[in-house]
Amino acid sequence: MKIRKWNDNWKFWSGGDSFALVWGIPESAVDVTLPHDAMALETPYEECPNGTNTGYVKGALYTYVKRFYVPSSAYAGKDVIVRFEGIYEKSSIYVNEQLVGSCNYGYSVVDVNITGALRLDAENEIRVIVRNGAMPNSRWYSGGGIYRDVYMLIGEKAHIAPYGVRINTLTLDDDSAEILVKTRIDNKDNSRLTASLETRIIDPSGKEVASVKVPAHLMPLESREIVQRITVTDPSPWSEDTPDLYKCVSVITSDDFCATEKNIIMDSSEESFGIRTMSLDKVHGLRVNGKTVKLRGACIHHDSGLIGAATYDSVMYRQVRKMKEAGFNALRIAHNPAAPALLRACDKLGVYVMDEFVDMWTRNKTDYDYSMSFETDWKKDLKSMIMKDYNHPSVIMYSIGNEIPEIGTDIGTRIGTEMNAYVKELDDSRYTTAGINGVFAAGDKVGEIMQDILSAACAKKEQKSAKDVEGIEAETEAKRDVEIEKESGTQENTDCKADGKADGNVDVNADGNADGNVNDFMTVMDAHMDEIVNHKAVSQRLDNACTFLDIAGYNYMTARYEKDYVNNPDRIIVGSETYPPQIARNWAEIEKYSTVIGDFTWTGWDYIGEAGIGIPAYKFGEGGFGASYPCRLSYVGDFDITGFRRPVSYYRQIVFGLRKKPYIAVQDPHHYGEKVITTPWVMSDAISSWTWDIPKGSRIIVEVYSAGDEAELILNGRSLGRKASGKKEGYRTLFDITYEKGELEAVSYENGKEIGRVSLVTAGEASKIEVDREHNDYKESCNNAVGNGSINIKTIDKAMEKEASCDNSDSYENMEIVYLNISLCDDVGNVNTESDTDIHVSLSDNLELMGFGSADPRDVTSYKTSDTKTYNGRCQLIVRRLDNNKGIVTLKAGGLLTEYEII
Asked: Domain named DUF4982: which ranges (predicted)?
């Protein structure tokens, strides 16, 4: 089918009367170009019903309307479909006031056939009503409205079905690969179809390497899948190291006409795919193309940083590229199906994907979430995800759910078995998993577990002095880990009471139930999580859940890796969600056990919502457990929300063995000696800076991340000594020193030989605003815009020369998105991290502001305004170029002024 983006010329408004007699367009309606995140226009406020879930941003009722003319010359006798890649949420779609489709799930691709509702040679109206006002309905910032691309598909009555071409690699060796191509053809005509299907394989260089042509004779109103086995010689396999992409060109030509009119193209399609195989076993773990792979993974939510939830190819490409450069080779899309734009980026850059279906099944996690529709909708929504993913080589496994409380129960086992069977029916080439949290899986056994563990913990604590052990933690963590936690001020989460229960806001109540949400519980009970996940009740529920999964996804259950390697040797495990500070411990276990195939940290990239779980704080409510307004961001992630790498990212890269140079992070000296309130997701409050507004001689703690067995700290040329570092020390060494302006260096040694060094210098007074434009190596073209039937196809054979073009008439859509990183610097360009100030931006008329803000987790200023405040000396401006002329950005901060040209 001919397919084109349909993002332009929409009207939008929020609110309205659902019982209105006449469906008009109010004067308040504004012109918008999709993708469009309506929630991003809202300003956070303390009384918001969504609370911390969405960063105090509300949802509402949204309406989108597009009016378009339908000439009979182009539409008569055609099949017309509108594809929505994502509408959040509970959408109803009308054409000329007739309901043509609906979708409750905010992350599903929806194809709506509007043929029967169209009026030829007349103006038509499509209206999308989005009900996002029932709050809360998400545990994180979801965005709202039509936040992903929209397409129109137009085809003959006989055509290749949408998502109708499915490609799979059957065998692969050095000399050849056998490809299975399944092509579904729909004949919606009342007459027979006498045609041919030709399938051509184009290699990454653009050369045709294989071609097969077969008859395609269909009866009236028949839909048929045609299967072709095609051999490709000298294949270039797709992997993280060689993300080579092939194209599969499918063309239907008519054989019904006289000889002079044969080979008329009726429909055509082009799909990008990769040649790759996978295998899974307890000896080799996960193998891709015969090579064992350990997944260096990160979980990410779907938002686009300061832009909000609106999804763009170049933005997704930027995010994936940055994460791969930082050492990740895998992403878990949490906890919803990935945007097609993200999968395209992962295909191109060579990043493996765990695509996740849902965050809940039959039990709510918020009052109005998808659990209300799960029983009736799960099959169609799961199918939507799999059909979208099928030809993406980056997708290697499907997660059918995250932290499902009922997953290990009898009913949960039945549901999981049905879901797994349905996945295999649609796609038997990939593996299934689920993110299982031991605490959640325990369900009604939590009370029993807590009584057992806390009673034992308190008994032990009474027998040992505080000097020798701090509760049960000392028996479950390595000695060095405990020392690091003490030195960095990590809080002790539990104390014993007379009844053997834990003190804190999350507790086991009189009925044996755990109060509070799972994040709160895991924070308070962090010291006991190893015992909790190894409890026999958790093991029983895990055994039930693992009966229907190819891979057991363990959320925060590193403590089970060794146990299950011994007791369940055929169980393949992935750390589907883990604490960032524990990566050294986790990776050592992953390298040790062949059955543990990788780790996915929570998270790779900071996000809006779940506010505060990663914010170090010094007063209750400012962050961590009990975070409240104005906390807006989660503040966990190797990257902050602007895409700036945080210290834990460099730490992880060293643990992975991908960086030899050390890294310096400095704990906030303004709070030296104070007890920091943290959660298990927080390593410390350190940033990479040696610019502090404190007196000379003040105490300060420096963290050095080092791959070598020794780390040395040098201040202004003076050695402050060497300390043990490297794997035995968890790759993290702390120096407690006195502050002095100048240059601070860290040197890493292995067997006495220097293997790398890095330095920080004290910045002078901020005297200028520096603007750094990020390099944009993303080349948007029709080829990466969409999937099935999307490409500008020029057939190889002259007899079939006809262009089935991707008509990207949305010129606005193709304008470049530009990222400008803004810093307050001294005369020589050093960032002054202690000189934060308000900053205002003005733009020339040919630039559109898409996002303006900083990584400050407590800033509640709208990212859509022209004012923000720097955070640690930095902020970010994102603009879209509306034409190819020079754009002017003017920035003013206090007495500083700068003008920047975008050309």
From this structure: 697-755
